[in-house]
């Protein structure tokens, strides 16, 4: 592939290398980059479907003011003026930027420089506050800097990998696959998962600990106590390189097995098994993610984990360490430029005068921020209270992703001037903007990103920006120039910005900090273009894969700090009114607020609707049957979600994906329900622990529809739409059934009152109706409605939109006897459904995932569905054992 361009995946923090080969028609063939050290050629389902997200139909192609197309000049001038005026009248603290771990480092660098060095306020925060601020806080408390001490190879070299609050199989699939492969090669390796839910990840585990939501700190305190009791403390390391162990131990000692089992809801034998396994295996990596961070005591939990690694000296050497896995592609880059409201550039501290002075000198800054700015939750509160007069949101969708999201939407409305930089024309947040800036998207942008193991990779453009779209760094510089800072923002290219960023990091090196890439400060344009992925640090001493084996830390004393941790319950109290914990997270094939992955029909078929996982006993108590619609309520707001009854979520805790938006569902925005309780140390909100009530949405009817054009679901009380090849699919429900289903279907499909030929099957007695509408002999759409949740073969029906002909028995809702129903799609690469897989396992005696791949293709491309295939094999094996 000589004309392939090497770039980086824009989704998760694994940071896979991608080969993109433009097809000359605006699209591109996508493959994994075999030479990239994160993925060695692999891509997960989302990465492999990147080619399906490149179309321009939904893109924002020109600037807009008040919803109308405008020139760049007008949009930039207006934004600069409103920011200038706010600063003049109300001071620098009256303006704010809310940015994103999905910006490139170069974008992030200029945004941070503008706010902290030129506006003179640190009111720039990022969606990373919702993501790994607690991990940053924990690292800084322990090490003195935000340093991830580990690398991916450690996961492969460990003898024990503990995954805490991480659904690696779905959220970091390529790293999960590397781990699974390492475990297969070294069967003596052990994996423990700690998660209230059983997930695709826990299927890999030798031991799964279904911890009570929020109770992890008790478990790691118990571990620290056991480390001491078993004489496993590395006394030399502790006495030479750390401080604070006695205080941490005082907190930990009371956590014996019995008390820990009680607090965590785990069986004492399981607690015991975990403690002794961890103590006995020296090469241990404890990897954590949002199940730890998104908590009102997330920083403490992170430190409870780090404490155990420090006490045993298991840090910085191959196969061991405390590893916070980052979520977004450039969460780490954002940390490096200081994109959080409480940080300065290059891992320097905003609070340290010497650091501030150094950066101010470097930037020749006229007005340097002197104290930390508003963190995300407080920032939107300040908006609601009228303290923010001008706000600029870039590359994030807070109306969907912030806790108490309805209040955040209202807060944005309360700000006199709001600019949003977006790639899509319509989004929940963009629709609230006074000025919309069309940003260049992945594929069109050039710069760098840093993955979870500190590896910096070039993202390279392989398509021209469409319409008038511009790269984010350029938009920031254009506004900054018009605010009067032209000289400081006269960058001509991403390479230009990178050089300044790298040069600034020399200060960090000089001030004894970790983030130093100054060896790259003079990189020429051509060399920047050709830059190979590299791990930082990359200062005068060269690179290193791991930190802290030498016991030298970045605290004033040079010693690592233990943090004494008192476990705390989630901040929102359970009560009779709100008796359930609301856990939220991700699904395998979707990314965040769906603006990109929902464009792909292939990715949309795995899970096409917002849902609520609920334990059978809770479902019974709430009067819910499978496939009902549930209303989830808190004091803040509510959401309507399809019910999935499963014992994979524990009793007392329900789970819903975070992805659905007001664009694609009636009330699937789960953050409308989530309370904005924050960790006092990190400011990260507790996105997985709100107290809620669940009740049945009393539906008089349910419906499923397929159609060519996007359906108009306004007449349904509940709806969710998703793309299908050749059109759309919709799930619907309502309180009262319409009198005339044909008229309802016409309106749904956007037809006029008498338009289209109808084919109707109705059973009025049972409240069931099936309507297909045709125009010029071609199917426009089909609606299947019933009093109960509709049972039709959805995959089959959605597939008909792409078929050359519509079968005469369309309204049967399932394939004829000659064509079996594939069932819900498991493998999105080859569209292989659960029924097909189960039948093949039974009939062909398939014994492992590889055999399924050979027989059906499933799991043989990206591999993201392999954990689910294994679960189907296990289930079939269980059934066979029972039968025997
Ligand atoms: N497919 C996909 N992958 C993604 C993303 C995506 O949107 N889609 N987003 C990326 C981003 S930005 C991020 S931050 C990462 C997130 O990656 P993860 O953190 O792995 O994902 P989540 O699903 O948010 O949460 C992980 C698990 O935490 C569990 N959990 C909840 N409460 C607790 C608790 O109290 N204790 C413990 N131990 N566990 C708990 C949940 O049940 C859930 O299974 O994923 C990245 N990768
Ligand atoms: N309840 C609950 N809420 C959560 C979470 C949870 O687990 N539970 N997770 C939290 C976490 S960890 C995260 S990271 C956040 C993620 O939440 P968000 O950051 O809000 O989600 P995204 O959909 O990634 O938003 C990115 C936006 O930027 C646009 N965009 C894409 N590329 C570009 C670009 O190059 N330039 C510009 N200017 N715009 C672009 C996209 O169209 C999209 O609208 O959600 C948080 N919210
Ligand atoms: S694991 Fe998937 S989403 Fe993450 S970087 Fe790799 S291809 Fe992209
Ligand atoms: Mo995230």
UniProtKB/TrEMBL annotation:
Q: Which PROSITE patterns match?
A: 4FE4S_MOW_BIS_MGD
Q: Which GO terms describe its biological process?
A: cellular respiration; nitrate assimilation
SMART domains hit by this protein: Molybdop_Fe4S4 (SM00926)
Instruction: List keywords of the entry alphabetically.
Output: 4Fe-4S, Iron, Iron-sulfur, Metal-binding, Molybdenum, Nitrate assimilation, Oxidoreductase
Q: Which residues form the 4Fe-4S Mo/W bis-MGD-type domain?
A: 2-58
* CDD domains named in the record: MopB_CT_Nitrate-R-NapA-like (cd02791), MopB_Nitrate-R-NapA-like (cd02754)
Please list the cofactors this protein needs.
Mo-bis(molybdopterin guanine dinucleotide); [4Fe-4S] cluster
Q: Which GO terms describe its cellular component?
A: membrane; oxidoreductase complex
**What Gene Ontology terms describe what this protein does at the molecular function level?**
4 iron, 4 sulfur cluster binding; metal ion binding; molybdopterin cofactor binding; oxidoreductase activity
Similarity comment: Belongs to the prokaryotic molybdopterin-containing oxidoreductase family. NasA/NapA/NarB subfamily.
PANTHER family according to UniProt: NADPH-FE(3+) OXIDOREDUCTASE SUBUNIT ALPHA, RESPIRATORY NITRATE REDUCTASE
Name of the featured protein: Assimilatory nitrate reductase (NADH) alpha subunit apoprotein
Q: Which organism is it from?
A: Albimonas pacifica
């Amino acid at each position: 592939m000589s004309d392939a361009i090497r770039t980086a995946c824009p989704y998760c923090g694994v940071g896979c290398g991608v080969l993109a080969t433009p097809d000359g028609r605006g699209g591109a063939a996508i493959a994994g980059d075999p030479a990239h050290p994160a993925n060695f050629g692999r891509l997960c389902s989302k990465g492999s479907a990147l080619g399906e997200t490149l179309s321009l139909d939904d893109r924002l192609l020109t600037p807009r003011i008040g919803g109308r197309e405008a020139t760049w000049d007008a949009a930039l001038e207006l934004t600069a003026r409103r920011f200038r005026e706010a600063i003049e009248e109300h001071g620098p603290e009256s303006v704010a930027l809310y940015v994103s771990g999905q910006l490139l480092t170069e974008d992030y660098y200029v945004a941070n420089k503008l706010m902290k060095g030129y506006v003179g306020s640190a009111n720039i925060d990022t969606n990373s506050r919702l993501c790994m601020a607690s991990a940053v806080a924990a690292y800084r408390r322990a090490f003195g800097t935000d340093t991830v001490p580990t690398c991916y190879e450690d996961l492969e070299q460990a003898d024990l990998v503990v995954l805490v609050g991480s659904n690696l199989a779905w959220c970091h699939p390529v790293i999960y696959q590397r781990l699974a492969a390492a475990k297969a090669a070294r069967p003596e390796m052990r994996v423990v998962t700690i998660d209230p839910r059983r997930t695709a990840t826990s299927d890999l585990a030798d031991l799964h600990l279904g911890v009570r939501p929020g109770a992890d700190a008790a478990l790691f305190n118990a571990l620290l106590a056991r480390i001491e009791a078993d004489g496993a403390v590395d006394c030399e390391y502790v006495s030479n390189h750390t401080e604070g162990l006695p205080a941490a131990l005082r907190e930990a000692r009371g956590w014996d097995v019995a008390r820990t089992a009680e607090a965590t809801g785990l069986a004492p034998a399981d607690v015991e098994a975990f403690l002794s396994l961890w103590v006995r295996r020296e090469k241990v990596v404890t990897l954590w993610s949002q199940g730890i961070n998104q908590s009102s005591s997330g920083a403490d939990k992170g430190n409870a984990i780090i404490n155990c690694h420090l006490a045993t000296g298991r840090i910085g050497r191959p196969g061991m360490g405390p590893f916070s896995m980052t979520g977004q592609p450039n969460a780490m880059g954002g940390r490096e430029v200081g994109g959080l409201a409480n940080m300065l550039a290059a891992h320097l501290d905003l609070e340290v005068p010497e650091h501030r002075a150094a950066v101010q000198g470097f930037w020749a800054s006229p007005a340097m921020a002197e104290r930390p700015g508003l963190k995300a939750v407080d920032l939107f509160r300040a908006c609601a209270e009228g303290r923010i007069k001008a706000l600029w949101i870039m590359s994030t969708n807070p109306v969907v992703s912030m806790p108490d999201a309805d209040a955040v939407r209202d807060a944005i409305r309360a700000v006199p001037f709001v600019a949003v930089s977006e790639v899509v024309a319509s989004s929940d947040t963009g629709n609230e903007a006074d000025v919309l800036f069309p940003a260049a998207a992945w594929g069109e942008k050039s710069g760098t990103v840093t993955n979870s193991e500190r590896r910096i990779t070039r993202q390279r453009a392989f398509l021209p920006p469409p319409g008038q779209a511009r790269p984010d760094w350029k938009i920031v510089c254009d506004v900054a120039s018009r605010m009067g800072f032209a000289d400081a923002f006269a960058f001509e290219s991403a390479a230009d910005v990178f050089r300044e960023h790298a040069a600034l990091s020399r200060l960090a090196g000089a001030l004894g900090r970790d983030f130093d890439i100054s060896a790259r400060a003079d990189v020429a344009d051509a060399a920047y273009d050709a830059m190979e992925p590299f791990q930082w640090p990359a200062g005068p001493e060269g690179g290193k894969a791991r930190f802290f084996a030498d016991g030298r830390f970045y605290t004033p004393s040079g010693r690592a700090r233990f943090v004494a941790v008192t476990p705390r319950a989630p901040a929102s109290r359970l009560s009779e009114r709100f008796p359930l914990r609301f856990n939220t997270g991700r699904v395998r094939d979707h990314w965040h607020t769906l603006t990109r992955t929902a464009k792909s029909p292939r990715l949309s078929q795995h899970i096409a609707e917002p849902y609520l996982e609920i334990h059978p006993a809770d479902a019974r108590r709430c009067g819910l049957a499978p496939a009902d619609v549930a209303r989830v309520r808190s004091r803040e707001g509510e959401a309507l979600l399809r019910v999935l009854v499963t014992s994979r979520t524990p009793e007392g805790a329900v789970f819903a994906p975070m992805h659905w938006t007001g664009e694609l569902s009636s009330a699937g925005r789960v953050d409308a329900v989530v309370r904005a309780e924050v960790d006092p140390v990190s400011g990260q909100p507790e996105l997985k622990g709100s107290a809620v009530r669940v009740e049945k949405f009393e539906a008089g009817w349910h419906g499923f529809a397929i159609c060519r054009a996007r359906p108009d679901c306004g007449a349904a009380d509940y709806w969710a739409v998703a793309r299908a090849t050749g059109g759309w699919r919709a799930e619907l429900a309502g309180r009262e059934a319409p009198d005339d289903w044909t008229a309802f279907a016409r309106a749904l499909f956007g037809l006029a009152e008498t338009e289209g030929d109808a084919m109707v099957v109705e059973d009025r007695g049972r409240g069931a109706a099936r309507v297909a509408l045709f125009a010029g002999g071609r199917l426009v759409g089909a609606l299947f409605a019933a009093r109960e949740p509709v049972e039709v073969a959805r995959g089959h029906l959605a597939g008909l939109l792409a078929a050359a002909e519509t079968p005469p028995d369309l309204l049967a809702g399932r394939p004829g006897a000659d064509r079996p129903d594939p069932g819900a799609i498991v493998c999105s690469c080859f569209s292989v459904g659960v029924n097909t897989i189960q039948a093949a396992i039974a009939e062909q005696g398939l014994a492992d995932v590889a055999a399924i791949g050979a027989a059906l293709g499933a799991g043989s491309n990206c591999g993201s569905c392999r954990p689910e295939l294994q679960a189907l094999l296990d289930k079939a094996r269980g059934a066979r054992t029972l039968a025997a």
